[in-house]
């Protein structure tokens, strides 16, 4: 079971998180790692903007920088919250899975727990697509010497979207066929959008 007294992911050092990830406990696992990667992506994008603010050569983009410095910290906190939610959702799902299969109401509880567990990577994918769109929006508006960092941020966002799919699929398999198919269809569309955004971003960088 998940330890509710464990520190939130954002409160841990990198070493502490890596040690927890490497341990023989079910959480954190890949489902929590994906939004943590996106949290770092948002942090890197924020660093690029921080080094771009106040530069005379980029004065015409001051408004965009201000917007970014409001949006990116919110994105970071959202991804950190999703990582924590994944651990909690897994604990809830695991509790139902350990019940006797003929326990009264188990099917309903299982579907509810699986939907909650699947909703976390689904929402993380949504947020990754939005972060990719924002990275594309920032292209050409930030310090050109840190363009490589903006590229890395975009790559990490797309990687998070891809990494969410395995967790989503395994939880969606516990849903009704209608719910599963609908969730997976929209998720595949989001994943395709994330890939297209990264491709467009790469082309924009190449064109200067």
How many beta-strand runs? 0
Estimated structural class: mainly alpha
**If you average the pLDDT, what whole number results?**
91
**In percent, how much strand structure appears in the residues?**
under 5%
Per DSSP, the total helix count is 6
- Low-confidence stretches are 1-6
Report the sheet with the most strands, covering strand number, pairing sense and barrel closure.
none
Shape label: elongated
What percent of residues adopt helix (DSSP H or I)? over 70%
Notes on the structure:
The relative contact order is 0.14. α3 (62-97) packs antiparallel against α4 (106-138), α4 runs parallel beside α6 and α5 runs antiparallel to α6. The N and C termini lie far apart (50 Å). The chain has 208 residues and is an all-alpha fold. The radius of gyration is 19 Å and the shape is elongated. The protein has helices spanning 14-22, 30-50, 62-97, 106-138, 147-172, 177-206. It has 6 helices and no strands.
């Amino acid at each position: 079971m998940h330890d509710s007294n464990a520190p939130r992911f954002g409160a841990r050092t990198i070493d502490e998180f890596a040690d927890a990830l490497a341990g023989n406990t079910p959480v954190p696992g890949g489902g929590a790692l994906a939004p943590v990667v996106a949290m770092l992506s948002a942090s890197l994008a924020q660093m690029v903007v921080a080094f771009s603010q106040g530069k005379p050569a980029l004065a015409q983009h001051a408004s965009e920088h201000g917007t970014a410095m409001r949006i990116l910290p919110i994105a970071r906190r959202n991804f950190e919250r999703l990582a924590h939610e994944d651990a909690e959702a897994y604990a809830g799902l695991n509790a139902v899975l350990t019940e006797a299969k003929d326990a009264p109401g188990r099917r309903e509880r299982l579907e509810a727990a699986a939907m909650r567990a699947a909703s976390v990577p689904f929402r993380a994918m949504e947020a990754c697509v939005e972060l990719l769109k924002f990275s594309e929006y920032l292209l050409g508006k930030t310090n050109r010497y840190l363009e490589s960092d903006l590229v890395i941020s975009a790559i990490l966002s797309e990687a998070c979207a891809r990494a969410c799919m395995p967790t989503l699929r395994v939880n969606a398999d516990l849903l009704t066929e209608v719910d599963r198919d609908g969730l997976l269809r929209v998720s595949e569309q989001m994943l395709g959008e994330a890939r297209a955004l990264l491709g467009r971003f790469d082309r924009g960088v190449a064109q200067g």
